User: Fold Zinc-containing alcohol dehydrogenase from Dictyostelium discoideum.
Amino acid sequence: MKAAVFKQIGGDLEIVEVPVPEPKQGWVRIKVHSCGVCHSDNACKYGNFGNSYPRIPGHEVFGEIEKLGEGVDPNYFKIGKLVGVGWFGGNHCGKCRECLNDQWIFCKESLICGIHYDGGYAEYMVAPSDSLAFVPEGMNAEETAPLLCAGITVFNSFRNQNIKVGSLVGVQGLGGLGHLAIQFCKKMGYEVIAMSSGDQKEKLAKELGAAHYVNISKDGWIDQMKAIGSVQCILLTAPSSSIVQSSLDALGVNGKLVLLALLPEPFNANSLTLIGGNKSIIGWSSGDSRDTEQTLNFANKNQVKAMVKTFPLENVNEALLKIADARFRHVVKIL
Ligand SMILES: [Zn+2]
Ligand SMILES: [Zn+2]
Assistant:
């Protein structure tokens, strides 16, 4: 089969012919239809999580069940069923404190797809059965792939903040995560303020469902936010360290600031702003395969769609290198 592989740390992806992998006990073979390109693929390239090489990256995998390893229930994991695999790569133990607390993603046995084992930049891949999320029939392979990492990250982080439906929420950044966050928050019943630099993205933000648009590169934007109302949550999808304190200032009483992307450096926040307004700063990873399944079901029922540009597997390096100037999400089309 054809696959794109990092042969050594820091290298480019190389297209190679490799044997189709066999699913071991408890694992499933997936025929890959498409795979979304995520910034975190670079974690595989640079070995940030200690992966070995050669390694096939890709953790926004959309495909179909093709073969079952020993011990996988054929009545539940039916051959031909559409499935997705995200950052949570399965293999949770089910016995540790984190598992018993229903936090599979924090189990020490849990693996990361495309880091600890080969991911979706290939015609076939194998994954533990607990990493699989069933995809509702009829969902489009290219538009759905980004929901498996970017989508679940915004949907699952936000729904866990317990913000009252109808409240004002801000979405900072209008890239891969942000354009999905606006749609999800709107469809979940919130009044969304899109927060981005410049005025050129206002039209698009409103088409995606934002009720308001605030240009955060202009002086006075914090007052503009406050004038709209009491903002109960801001999702930072493309943060810089300076946006943290100003977003805290823009939040209303009890407001929550949720970090969804890594900041390039440590940030400063004024404790008086936090204590004086019962405000909090929250970090959130993504979620597990059950959260992914709920993300997909919600997106399917509510027509939340990723805006994508597709690439053939041969052009995967271009898709990954140009991710910084991607208008939303790049997706590698494999089938
Ligand atoms: Zn990702
Ligand atoms: Zn565990």
About this structure: The pocket of zinc ion (ligand 2) is lined by residues 92-93, 95-96, 98-99, 107, 109 (CB under 6 Å). The mean pLDDT is 96. The radius of gyration is 20 Å.
